[in-house]
Amino acid sequence: MGKVDFLQGNEACAEGAIAAGCRFFAGYPITPSTEIAERMSARLPEVGGVYVQMEDEIASLAAVIGASWAGVKAMTATAGPGFSLMQEHMGYAVMAETPCVIVNVQRGGPSTGQPTKASQSDVMQARWGSHGDYEIVALSPSTVQEMYDLTIECFNWSERLRVPAVLLTDEVVGHMRERVVLRDDVETVERELPPEGEEIEKPFPMEPDDLVPPMPVFGRGHRVHVTGLTHDERGYPATDDPEVHRKLVMRLCNKVRKRAREIHEEVGYDFEERESDVALVAYGGCARTVIEAAEELGVTVFRPKVVHPFDPDMIRDLLDGYEVLVVEMNLGQYVEMVERALDRECVHLLGYPGGYPPTPERVIREVKKLSG
Amino acid sequence: MTVVDWKELVRWDRMPHILCPGCGNGTILNALVRVLAEKFEEGELDPDKTVLVSGIGCSSRLPGYVKLDSLHTTHGRPLAFATGIKLANPDLEVIVITGDGDAAAIGGNHLIHAARRNLDVTVICANNYIYGMTGGQVSPTTPRGAKSTTTPYGNPEPPFDLCELVMGAGAPHVERWTTAHPAQLKAAIARALEREGFSFIDVLCQCPTNYGRRNDMRDPREMVEWLRENTSTREEEGKIRIGILRDEEREPFHKRMYDMIEEVRTGEEGD
Ligand SMILES: Cc1ncc(C[n+]2csc(CCOP(=O)(O)OP(=O)(O)O)c2C)c(N)n1
Ligand code: SF4
């Protein structure tokens, strides 16, 4: 099993990162994510890792990407405004296929908004915040245990797919304290490396196995050029050729899209099927009260842990035929993806702009309105 | 000893390069690959452990022509990326190639903090007084009164002295040269690679296309001549000071970091 502890969500996240093999953290303090940085600054040196507080969030993600290219698993943690600053480098990590983990403990916005209050309003920013077409992995924990487990999953999927993975959590889960098992049988995934000491002529092949090429790491004799510009198979800028661009962007998207179902199944989700016309959908901190309401009402509830990539087929398989009520701490983000998967008429939203999650009573009232 | 020919360090399959005829970046690239070839041959540096990092701009394209591991990053941020590389693997020799806009405008914050931390990198800043890649807009080093596409009436702002800036932030090794001093530039790059800690070389260089053309120096030779005539290794009225401006020793960031880690792990103070 492992060690049982009573931790805050943010602390559990830091422990998960270390268990996953993270040995580099660069960040800039922001509420409500700061405890992650604080714990990492104490814990990393104990395991031989580096903690550095950078001058801002832009620098933080840059340093994380640099550390990843130097061969080390790396993470940063932030909240809304910091996540906004990181967007250019999210795109860079996608384009340069750099594994890295970004924790976003969401808070109320827009702007500096509500630093100490919960929100889920960065769901779309995680997916579309950077310019260009891309796919990333974003996981949303509902419990302190999941802060630990899903941080590990973020590292694993990030290494497997060579994409940035976002732990898209929120203040509710980040700041609550719960019992957590720090497992001693954690399975970690290491990026596939090419043989050492070999120059690599085509580090970015058009059609590698799994669409993910092995990752050349600096200092191992590969002599690769890595750029955020559209590049050919050699990694050389090829910005004028629309065909090269199309093939590259399609591969970057497909390596995630094609495994959407697999990611959902591996990471897991809750689907409590009950005899009902209505099905509730919620994720993250908000799902806790929604699950309570669903139990009380005896209605079906679906709680994804994977927010991105979205799998419309899976949603159809699970939720077709229901009146679906999506509950989230924003004025409608995840619900838009659900609407695209199901009959629009059957999808409803109970949205809060953040601050706190709706109470079970509020959810119950809304469901009654729907079924009555 | 294997002879390392500088020609082996060039990615010939990428030629022709994108630089304009007469661009000062050519001189800088030339000096860099020749110094690297010498260092590799002398065994002072290992080509497999040498990494080039750059931002965005004409000058930031240089690493792409050198056959080493290289990271062409985002505009202004190469020093932030380099911080991660160097701290994650201190065995790597990290060289940052940047421009005046890249380093001092959008990247100004990273520049002063990398200098303050004494990050062990060699920074070569191709300072052409202008934004070359985006077509000649004003930069933080454009002289007062100079013309650019965004200062059509002459630049109303005072420029940064990049060497003063990084020295103020604590950089221990700072030099300024120009493309009119290729031999001295080579020696400066060699010195910077030998020094531990943050080494900054401000290289005044010509951009005939976007700076020269608008400031009565259309011919690259004229610009190089101007650089020779208006700079001096001594304090001289009306001339830009070049040479070794500071050469001190200060413990580099990664050493302090790894000593601390060692101390935490063993409970003993490192040396
Ligand atoms: C975030 C961002 N802003 C603006 C740009 C556009 N841009 C590209 S290069 C450049 C200026 C380059 O100037 P400098 O660093 O002096 O390099 P040079 O081209 O003169 O060598 C700018 C503004 C960009 N690529 N990214
Ligand atoms: S625009 Fe200026 S800096 Fe850029 S390549 Fe041409 S001459 Fe060089």
Automatic annotation (TrEMBL), chain A:
<protein>
    <recommendedName>
        <fullName>2-oxoglutarate synthase subunit KorA</fullName>
        <ecNumber>1.2.7.3</ecNumber>
    </recommendedName>
</protein>
<dbReference type="Pfam" id="PF17147">
    <property type="entry name" value="PFOR_II"/>
</dbReference>
<dbReference type="InterPro" id="IPR050722">
    <property type="entry name" value="Pyruvate:ferred/Flavod_OxRd"/>
</dbReference>
<dbReference type="InterPro" id="IPR033412">
    <property type="entry name" value="PFOR_II"/>
</dbReference>
<feature type="domain" description="Pyruvate:ferredoxin oxidoreductase core">
    <location>
        <begin position="277"/>
        <end position="362"/>
    </location>
</feature>
<dbReference type="GO" id="GO:0006979">
    <property type="term" value="P:response to oxidative stress"/>
</dbReference>
<dbReference type="GO" id="GO:0047553">
    <property type="term" value="F:2-oxoglutarate synthase activity"/>
</dbReference>
<dbReference type="InterPro" id="IPR002880">
    <property type="entry name" value="Pyrv_Fd/Flavodoxin_OxRdtase_N"/>
</dbReference>
<dbReference type="Pfam" id="PF01855">
    <property type="entry name" value="POR_N"/>
</dbReference>
<feature type="domain" description="Pyruvate flavodoxin/ferredoxin oxidoreductase pyrimidine binding">
    <location>
        <begin position="15"/>
        <end position="250"/>
    </location>
</feature>
<keyword id="KW-0560">Oxidoreductase</keyword>
<dbReference type="GO" id="GO:0006082">
    <property type="term" value="P:organic acid metabolic process"/>
</dbReference>
<dbReference type="GO" id="GO:0044272">
    <property type="term" value="P:sulfur compound biosynthetic process"/>
</dbReference>
<comment type="subunit">
    <text>Heterotetramer of the KorA, KorB, KorC and KorD subunits.</text>
</comment>
<dbReference type="InterPro" id="IPR029061">
    <property type="entry name" value="THDP-binding"/>
</dbReference>
<dbReference type="InterPro" id="IPR009014">
    <property type="entry name" value="Transketo_C/PFOR_II"/>
</dbReference>
UniProtKB/TrEMBL annotation, chain B:
<dbReference type="GO" id="GO:0045333">
    <property type="term" value="P:cellular respiration"/>
</dbReference>
<dbReference type="GO" id="GO:0030976">
    <property type="term" value="F:thiamine pyrophosphate binding"/>
</dbReference>
<dbReference type="GO" id="GO:0006082">
    <property type="term" value="P:organic acid metabolic process"/>
</dbReference>
<dbReference type="GO" id="GO:0016625">
    <property type="term" value="F:oxidoreductase activity, acting on the aldehyde or oxo group of donors, iron-sulfur protein as acceptor"/>
</dbReference>
<dbReference type="Pfam" id="PF02775">
    <property type="entry name" value="TPP_enzyme_C"/>
</dbReference>
<dbReference type="InterPro" id="IPR051457">
    <property type="entry name" value="2-oxoacid:Fd_oxidoreductase"/>
</dbReference>
<keyword id="KW-0670">Pyruvate</keyword>
<protein>
    <submittedName>
        <fullName>Pyruvate:ferredoxin oxidoreductase, beta subunit</fullName>
    </submittedName>
</protein>
<dbReference type="GO" id="GO:0044272">
    <property type="term" value="P:sulfur compound biosynthetic process"/>
</dbReference>
<dbReference type="InterPro" id="IPR029061">
    <property type="entry name" value="THDP-binding"/>
</dbReference>
<dbReference type="InterPro" id="IPR011766">
    <property type="entry name" value="TPP_enzyme_TPP-bd"/>
</dbReference>
<feature type="domain" description="Thiamine pyrophosphate enzyme TPP-binding">
    <location>
        <begin position="56"/>
        <end position="203"/>
    </location>
</feature>
<keyword id="KW-0560">Oxidoreductase</keyword>
